[in-house]
UniProtKB/TrEMBL annotation, chain A:
Residues of the CBS domain: 287-346
Lineage: Bacteria, Pseudomonadati, Pseudomonadota, Gammaproteobacteria, Oceanospirillales
Topology of this chain in the membrane: Peripheral membrane protein
Protein's recorded name: Quaternary amine transport ATP-binding protein
Organism (species): Litchfieldella qijiaojingensis
Enzyme Commission number: 7.6.2.9
Pfam family for this entry, one: CBS
Record flagged with keyword Nucleotide-binding: yes
Automatic annotation (TrEMBL), chain B:
Transmembrane segments: 50-68, 75-92, 98-121, 142-169, 222-245
Keyword terms, alphabetized: Cell membrane, Membrane, Transmembrane, Transmembrane helix, Transport
Phylogenetic lineage: Bacteria, Pseudomonadati, Pseudomonadota, Gammaproteobacteria, Oceanospirillales
Topology with respect to the bilayer: Multi-pass membrane protein
Localization per Swiss-Prot or TrEMBL: Cell membrane
Protein name: Proline/betaine ABC transporter permease ProW
């Protein structure tokens, strides 16, 4: 099961191990029942205890956006509040930078919240008796920072969310989206290492929500915080998350990258969510990467035809000495036209190309040419090709084969994975423009 | 015909209480109660002297100005007319004594009540302990504790103020508790999530947001203390209460009515002004200074205006 999936990393920022939060009279008994496999409803019926978080383990890497997605009552809000101990966990360990915060004394906990953690709330939780600027200053004020210094920092944080002009306005005068920007600025002003976001965009209109998601991704690109993000919206989770945990009845049903979850839902519960996901926005070109078997620029027509025959391909790319694609050669062009003397003459240099990190939706126009799509790396070198038919086969989704292939490719392929981990945001930015 | 228990035996509770108060509480704790009396005495005398020292014209200019700054033109006009009228009735001195008593009582109610209310809001156990006491304080007829108060504190204006404090204290405790408990959980969470200490949470978030409710409690306390000053006259407190009380004793309807009118006018003035203070807590834009500052501004402007006039 996904519940025990702990992705070990060298740069783990947050690590949660076998966390339980039980609301009820006899928590130890409830934990025993959970270990024996009793369901949440069963436990509630038997003992009137609620197992809000039941044996959850995960770890979040430095700079990662980890999304917990679940419906109301799944325990996701309880989980995030356990991480800064607004709610006391019943059992388990929560390691921040390797230090267990469960059982930490009040003063240590307070200092941790003051210096490392920050939180953004669903209903903004702005202080109505303070101005926007004073709200943003709050975390700095209670650190004892001087009025001028914290004002400067607050204005800088407000600039980041585009609201510097509103510093002296009461928050009630702002719209919902703007209020949450203030909430975000308040969280950012303290330069947190870990940002906890409890359904921050759920109370906003869909369009504003999208803007805010984009904005968060842009900010994250600069700031590289470790973000734990709660949502009930799978689309939001897929857009934002580097990894996603699907939570149900206090447990993680599945934990994986967006691609893994869409391509290979762990059970019916998850697939009920993923069914109406726009796969073309989740899957990326690298998932369909095929070996290029590229021809070099000095290949003769004869050797080329031999290659075509031996590979059973209809098209092949030609690359220059540096591995940059020069164009595509079609087999039937070579077979038909005998008058050409050099391979270069039948080269189609108007070929479609894409980067591995691009979403499939951006490949549609490229697919329309009928030619294979060249996947190029940042230096412009050919690293693979995508067969247009494969794009539609993967998007069609129904076929088990392509789904498995996709998830296998998402799970394996070290280079692509590392690319995703190091630069998920640059990639995603490409479509937000 | 004897079919009631009381025909055979009556519980001598009255004797027990008499014994408890007269033979144990009074001889053993009199110094303690005397000590309690001291700060009240100081504040009351200081205030009374100040109010009686204050030249009448200053009063008539400054108070309506405060009312104007805090509560608007209507209340200011009413206050001005009332003050002139009170003087016309020839009960100015009594009014000032009553005002000093009330302000003293309310001050001590706030000093005692707000911290108790905060404590009650923070601890469910303390709240369940203090709740029945507040219920008793609010339901017990004030006449009942006038006698022990006389025994412990003697007669006079200070014991009258003490009786008033006991009578008027519950609302400010209750509403402070309520106000703090009513602060949205998410706001408290936000405060905690950023690492506030309990003190910072209290002063930065809880009290400012509860201020309006606390002011409503203060207003209630003020009204209760106004109604108590008449009764306090029974144990020697002076002021308007005494005017009513002597009028009552001599069946002098006119004199008693004067006292009554004085109290009513005072009540309306104080009520409108303090209510506006509470409203101000709600409607003021954050960043602007609080209503109390506006009051001081009002005083400053008033005194300037007075200086210019004279």
């Amino acid at each position: 099961m996904g519940a025990d999936t702990v992705t070990a990393g060298t740069d783990e920022k947050v690590c949660v191990e076998h966390l339980f939060k039980i609301f009820g009279a006899d928590p130890q008994d409830t934990i025993r029942r959970i270990r024996e496999g009793a369901s949440k409803d069963q436990i509630y019926a038997d003992t009137a205890s609620v197992a809000a978080v039941a044996d959850v383990s995960f770890s979040v890497a430095q700079g990662e956006i980890f999304v917990v997605m679940g419906l109301s009552g799944s325990g996701k809000s309880t989980l995030i509040r356990c991480i800064n101990r607004l709610i006391e966990p019943t059992q388990g360990r929560i390691l921040l930078d390797g230090n267990d915060i469960v059982g930490m004394d009040v003063e240590g906990l307070r200092r941790l919240r003051l210096n490392k953690l920050s939180m953004v709330f669903q209903h903004f939780a702005l202080f109505p008796h303070k101005t926007v600027g004073e709200n943003v200053e709050y975390g700095l004020k209670i650190r004892g920072m001087s009025a001028r210094e914290r004002r400067e920092k607050a204005v800088r944080a407000l600039e980041q969310v585009g609201l510097a002009a509103y510093a002296d306005v009461p928050p009630d005068n702002l719209s919902g989206g703007m209020q949450q920007r203030v909430g975000l600025a308040r969280g950012l002003a303290v330069d947190p290492e870990i940002m906890l976001m409890d359904e921050p965009f759920s109370a906003l209109d869909p369009l504003i929500r999208r803007d805010m998601q984009d904005e968060l991704l842009v900010l994250q690109q600069q700031l590289r915080m470790t973000i734990i993000f709660i949502t009930h919206d799978l689309h939001e989770a897929l857009r934002i998350g580097d990894r996603i945990a699907i939570m149900k009845d206090g447990r993680f049903v599945q934990l994986g990258t967006p691609e893994e979850i869409v391509a290979n839902p762990a059970d019916d519960y998850v697939s009920a969510f993923t069914r109406d996901v726009d796969r073309s926005r989740v899957f990326r070109a690298y998932m369909l990467r095929g070996d290029p078997h590229a021809l070099s620029s000095d290949t003769t027509i004869e050797t080329a035809l031999e290659r075509f025959a031996s590979l059973g391909r209809e098209t092949l790319f030609m690359v220059d000495e540096d591995g940059r694609p020069l164009g595509v050669v079609r087999r039937h062009d070579l077979e038909r036209g005998g008058e050409k003397t050099a391979l270069r003459d039948s080269l189609i240099d108007d070929f479609p190309s894409a980067q591995g990190s691009q979403e499939l939706i951006e490949l549609y126009t490229a697919c329309a040419t009928g030619l294979p799509i060249a996947l190029v790396d940042e230096a412009g070198r050919l690293e693979g090709i995508v067969d247009p038919l494969e794009v539609f086969r993967l998007l069609g989704g129904g076929s088990e084969e392509s789904a498995e292939q996709a998830s296998a490719s998402a799970a394996s392929g070290d280079t692509e994975r590392s690319a995703i981990q190091t630069g998920p945001l640059e990639m995603r930015r490409s479509d937000h423009g | 015909m004897a079919d009631q228990i009381s025909d055979y035996y009556t519980l001598p509770l009255d004797d027990w209480i008499e014994f408890f108060v007269k033979d144990w509480l009074v001889p053993n704790f009199r110094p303690v109660f005397r000590a309690v009396q001291w700060p009240i005495d100081q504040v009351l005398n200081g205030l009374e002297d100040f109010l009686l020292w204050l030249p009448y014209p200053v009063f008539v200019v400054v108070i309506p100005l405060i009312a104007w700054r805090v509560a608007g033109r209507g209340v200011a006009g009413f206050t001005l007319l009332s003050l002139i009228f009170l003087d016309l009735l020839g009960i100015w001195r009594e009014t000032m004594v009553t005002l000093a008593m009330i302000v003293t009582a309310v001050t001590f109610c706030v000093i005692v009540g707000v911290p108790l209310g905060i404590l009650a809001a923070r601890s469910d156990r303390f709240y369940s302990f203090i709740r029945p006491i507040l219920d008793i304080m609010q339901t017990i007829p004030p006449f009942v504790y006038l006698v022990p108060i006389v025994m412990l504190f003697g007669v006079g204006i200070v014991p009258g103020v003490i009786a008033t404090i006991i009578f008027a204290l519950p609302p400010v405790i209750r509403l402070t508790n309520l106000g703090i408990r009513q602060v949205q959980a998410e706001l408290v969470e936000a405060g905690l999530a950023f690492g506030s200490t309990r003190r910072q949470l209290l002063f930065e978030i809880q009290i400012p947001l509860a201020l309006r409710t606390i002011m409503a409690g203060l207003n209630q306390t003020l009204m209760l203390s106004l109604s108590m000053v008449v009764i306090a006259a029974l144990i020697g407190a002076g002021g308007l209460g005494l005017t009513v009380f002597t009028g009552l004793g001599r069946l002098d309807v006119g004199r008693a009515s004067l006292g009554g009118i004085g109290i009513v006018l005072l009540a309306i003035m104080l009520d409108r002004i303090t209510q506006a203070l509470g409203e101000g807590g709600r409607s003021k834009a954050p960043g602007q200074k609080g209503s109390l500052t506006r009051v001081f501004k009002g005083i400053v402007q008033g005194s300037k205006a007075y200086n210019e006039k004279s």
